[in-house]
Design a protein that fits this description.
This protein has about 110 residues and is of the alpha+beta class. The chain has two helices and five strands, in the order E-E-E-E-H-E-H. A hairpin with a 4-residue loop joins strand 3 and strand 4.
């Protein structure tokens, strides 16, 4: 399955990203099929090839959650943002565990 995802480039502390198409099993920093654009998070500048993104999506490529939210937020593609991360619900202080303690068989 093909994925459209961000590939980090740049020095430590100076992140810069490429938007690339690659097989989902490949390493994120590995070879890619096509470079679709770039994103500078410091200046909030996104340069992409909109028609090539539409082409790859029509061929069945899936967007990563971060790439999807970035493109939807900039109105390059239509759709809804995806929840990437949810915090776990916090345990209550006085809650008793549902499991009984293990008792060794005598």
């Amino acid at each position: 399955m093909l994925k459209i995802r961000l590939q980090r480039i740049g020095k430590r502390g100076q992140a810069y990203f490429r938007l690339v198409v690659l097989e989902h099993t490949r390493r994120p920093k590995g070879k890619y099929l096509e470079d679709l654009g770039s994103y500078d998070p410091h200046l909030k500048v996104l340069n992409v090839k909109k028609e090539r993104i539409q082409h790859w999506i029509s061929k069945g490529a899936q967007l990563s959650a971060t790439a999807n939210n970035l493109l939807v937020g900039r109105e390059i593609i239509k759709g809804e943002k995806v929840t990437i991360w949810k915090p776990r619900p916090k345990k209550k202080a006085g809650a008793v565990s549902a499991e009984a303690p293990a008792v060794p068989a005598a």
